Amino acid sequence: MPELSRRRALTTAAALAASAATATGTAAAHSANATPSGSPDSPDAFDEVYKGRRIQGRPASGGGHHGGGHHGGGYAVFVDGVELHVMRNADGSWISVISHYAPVPTPRAAARAAVDELQGARLLPFPAN
């Protein structure tokens, strides 16, 4: 079995990085095509207490990363007043920064999953940059 050379390791790392960049670009293109707020497929607003935590969601207005940003398709979710970064996938499911690998059908379900995952811990603001 041949030994792993520095050149082979660097080539493999570069190929993996290029593959990851392609996947990220594809995901970004899909999320850019997410359903805009106010359309018939836009999720309903909600405001409830779940396991002692206040969760809220509503169509967001305005531009920029938050408050109508491209990832959430123009939808904002909050846990105890702190924004939970959410993203709508190409298949219509939703993920959050807290439960990134467990897609759920709605932003409300993403907020509830985040509360479950936090297990009483406070949600910290997600840096936009």
Classify the beta-strand content into a percent band: 15-25%
Tally of helical segments: 2
**How confident is the prediction overall: mean pLDDT?**
78
Order of strands, main sheet, comes to 1-2-3-4
**Secondary-structure element order, N to C:** HEEEEEEH
Rg, Å, rounded: 18 Å
Q: N- to C-terminal separation?
A: 45 Å
Biggest sheet layout: 4 strands, antiparallel
**What kind of oligomer do you see?**
single chain
Low-confidence stretches: 26-38, 63-70
Basic shape: elongated
Q: What is the total tally of β strands?
A: 6
Tell me what the structure shows.
The protein is of the alpha+beta class and 129 residues long. Helix content is 30%, strand content 20%. The strands form two sheets. The protein has a four-stranded antiparallel sheet with strand order 1-2-3-4, with helices on one face. Strands 5-6 form a two-stranded antiparallel sheet. A hairpin with a 5-residue loop joins strand 5 and strand 6 (94-96). The chain starts with 5 loop residues before the first helix and ends in an 11-residue tail after the last helix.
Summarize the structure.
This protein has 129 residues and is of the alpha+beta class.
List keywords for this structure.
129 residues; single chain; 6 strands; alpha+beta; elongated; four-stranded antiparallel sheet; two-stranded antiparallel sheet
Describe the protein's topology.
Blueprint lengths: L5 H27 L13 E5 L2 E7 L15 E5 L2 E3 L1 E3 L5 E3 L10 H12 L11
Antiparallel strand pairs: 1-2, 2-3, 3-4, 5-6
